Amino acid sequence: MGNYFENVVVPDASAEEAPRLAAHGLDWLVAEGIVHREAVAGCVFGAPAGHLPGPQWAPAVTDPRIEPLGGVAVHAGPWVSHAIPVESRYVICPHCAAPTRSATDDGTPVKEVWDLFGPAFGVWEKTGAAMVPCGACGRTGDVAAWRWSDDDLVLAHLGFAFWDWPDLAPEFVAEFGKVLGGGRLIRMGGKL
Ligand SMILES: [Zn+2]
How far is the centre of ligand 1, averaged over its atoms, from the C-alpha of 97 (Å)? Predict the structure, then answer.
């Protein structure tokens, strides 16, 4: 058993515009009948409450024979979204673009890198600001500006997490992306 999730993340939404876009996105999901407006505790992880599937959830998924079992969490504010497991093998400095190994080829995490980024993630989620130094160029960079390979981990101010839903339909995600401002979208998923 376990709980599956799929995250739809808008990495370029600013901290200022994220709350408005999140509310707009939720309004659209409710209007389409994909989720209920009421937030219910206990149907998602990583957020205090989520929105249960609405009467018209089927067009949002690739296989409507599989019923969604959980809710949708709205993340508006500093959020470290990552796949489980994180398949990224390196992380790229925002200044010099040098890749730093975050995992070996067989997927073993590089401890020094996670010892550096892990606490910075915690600070960033609380405050929206944290810096980490680059081993290659020596400069410190905004932890949110480092790019993880395969986009398996991203620090964003806006995203939606679908818990225990079947795979989201590409057409639905494309429409949803337009509602969320039309910028770049990152999808990732995994199992808790
Ligand atoms: Zn660097």
Answer: 6
